[in-house]
Design goal:
The structure is a single chain. This protein is α/β, with parallel strands linked by helices and 169 residues long. 43% of the residues lie in helices and 17% in strands. It has six helices and five strands. The longest helix has 18 residues, at 151-168.
Length: 169
């Protein structure tokens, strides 16, 4: 590793972590020495998994890769990135509408902190259609998530569905 490791922050809610997220992180490690997966604490959203569960899941998935760190943050992303001595924000893009929104955010972040760059990464083709929202919908309806999420996520979603079914009976 270089004397000054190239550190990137990959922010998001990761509710739940998908194989598209995993793909971006793993390929990002080819570009950066360290990636901090930063889970935004957003009181405006009602997550399926609480923040502790999301941190635990991501740490379990990347347990063999100490260069992937998992943290939570509040406030402005660029302030968090600066505090962590990172220089890059990694964002995944699946669609043109993602690009429109992410471009606007990247330009605003550059306005706020010109020393921090945003790098857009597209997931591998097999994950281009995968979103956390779709995963939650499929899980709620009992569909197969094989190949779409890490096994730990699949297991936890199945447990939640079973618990919800048991409560209804």
């Amino acid at each position: 590793m270089a004397a000054h490791p190239r550190t990137a922050v990959y922010p998001g809610t990761f509710d739940p972590l998908t194989n598209g997220h995993v793909d971006i992180i793993e390929r990002g490690l080819g570009l950066f020495d360290r990636i901090i997966v930063a889970i935004l604490l957003n009181s405006g959203k009602q997550p399926l998994f609480d923040v502790g569960e999301r941190v635990s899941i991501i740490r379990e998935v990347f347990a063999s890769q100490p260069v992937v760190e998992v943290e939570t943050f509040e406030g402005l992303l660029v302030d968090y990135v600066h505090r962590r001595h990172a220089t890059v924000i990694v964002r995944g893009l699946r669609t043109v509408s993602d690009f429109d929104y992410e471009r606007q955010m990247a330009l605003m972040n550059r306005h706020l902190r010109s020393d921090i760059e945003t790098v857009f990464m597209m997931p591998s083709e097999q994950y281009a259609y995968v979103s956390s929202t779709l995963i939650k919908d499929i899980a709620a309806l009992g569909g197969s998530l094989a190949g779409l999420v890490p096994p730990v996520v699949e297991t936890r979603l199945a447990r939640r569905r079973e618990a919800a079914t048991t409560r209804r009976v």
